[in-house]
Write a structure and sequence with these properties.
Elements lengths: L8 H20 L21 E9 L2 E9 L8 E5 L9 H9 L3 E5 L17 H16 L6 E6 L1 H12 L3 E7 L5 H8 L4 H11 L7 H7 L2 H6 L4 E6 L7 H13 L4 E6 L33 E6 L8 H14 L1
Parallel strand pairs: 3-4, 3-5, 5-6, 6-7, 7-9, 8-9
Antiparallel strand pairs: 1-2, 2-4
Amino acid sequence: MNSAVTLPASCRFGLVLHVLALLAAALLCGGCSRVPSALRPLPSASGPVLTERLTYRVDHLQVRALICRPDLRPGRPLLNLVHGGLDSPVDEAACRRFARLGYVVAASALRGQGGSQGRPEICGGEVDDVRALSSLVRQRSKTDPRRIGYLGVSLGGCVAIKAAALGSGVRAVVTLLSPTDFAEQLDLLRPVRPDAVARWEALLGGPASARPAAYEARRPLKALARLRAPLLTVAAGRDQLIPLKQSCAVRDVRRLSGHHVTEVRQNQAGRPAPRDSRRRLQRCRDEAPLGRLPALQRQDVLLIYEDLGHTSTPLMWRTAEAFLKANL
């Protein structure tokens, strides 16, 4: 006997809207006091970490930051950690965790966030915030100038790509569930979070139809073409906030720029996704994925967790750690 229950179309639509609203809160975080649990990293391992909170100057603004390091030894690799959202605080747990893995970690609160002056610019001036902090930490902590990495979460992925493309000594970039098309983003959110959309449009000077140049300037695609370092792009096949085609666009730009990009499809447990899976709702054009991760050194990887929504998992963070270790 078949026990499956089919919901009426109106109920299914209502459920989708409800899920979108919950996920929108995690991405846009319009007034959050802490990092959304869906995007938190693995729990930190034990061990001492040196932390420093500081304020530095960028474009006549006072911007706050957190620095984490395992010790005072010079010559360690530098990891620039870029948080997501518009009101998310610096993720101290992630900062400490990566410091315990041997990195000096620079985490900017970004302008208009975490007590910093200014206002958010949505992958605009935040790039300068990250680059200025990276330069400051390199000088103060005497990190290895040839081993620099970037890790950006959600909106922070856009900032990380742009900052990395402008720097030297960058050996690895990781983005986790990161958007590349903000006009499309807001169109998806408009039915369920009109308040958040209104805020973003105010920051961008209006809707995309009225300010197309402003929206295009925020996209990271031109920076992706210039980026020389290996890139790990982690996407979710069931992400209702960031359609997979936005990560497919990353793959396409990188390939056109001469980079080899290996596609990998897995479920969220890390097992190869069935080739004929009917659950594969979103696909890249001409996709030919592997089921397992290749050697991570010196190559781009597009990793798609096909049964995952807009949330991170312990396995996702471990893969990011492995990619950074292989290239830094």
